[in-house]
Amino acid sequence: MARVSTLPEMWRPLMGRPSVRMPWCPVCGRPGPLEQHHPVRRGAGVLYDEHGREVAKPTITLCGFGSNLKDADGRPYCHGLAHHNRLHFRWAETRQASRALGDLPFPVCGGHWEYLLLDEPADYLAALSMPGWRRLG
């Protein structure tokens, strides 16, 4: 029996990408407290590959805990910003010419995470069309 994916299409480009684990927040640089954030929320559904295996949801280290927006001094926590739709993540594909790597007979493909930090909340699809995305790290 074939498994049926229930993950909405907008989240599929993020699935199966590498997780980011760092000893500080890659958005703001804060050393702690830290948590692993799921850019594709755990309850968003599941995606199965062509062999019927569930595709893993990546995580990204962010400062904060739970969905708390600010610390006692009023500084924002990135994990809280993400849960309040003010911090978004996307995967950016990278293609490098094979000449840069010694004339390989094929292009080298890969990618990296990018983030968008907003002053006001926005849903993910609206955020994707906004300017200001920056490379994570």
Description:
There is one protein chain. The protein has one domain. It is built from two helices and five strands, in the order ββαββαβ. The strands form two sheets. A three-stranded antiparallel sheet has the order 3-4-5. The N and C termini lie far apart (42 Å).
Give me the oligomer status: single chain
The helix tally amounts to 2
> Share of helix among residues?
under 10%
> What does the largest sheet look like?
3 strands, antiparallel
- Mean pLDDT metric: 91
Care to count the β-strands?
5
Order of helices and strands: EEHEEHE
Give the C-alpha Rg: 17 Å
User: What's the end-to-end separation, in Å?
Assistant: 42 Å
Q: Which structural class should the secondary elements be placed in?
A: mainly beta
Shape: globular
Low-confidence stretches: none
| Total domain count | 1
Instruction: Give the neighbour order of strands across the main sheet.
Output: 3-4-5
Report the portion of residues in β strands.
15-25%
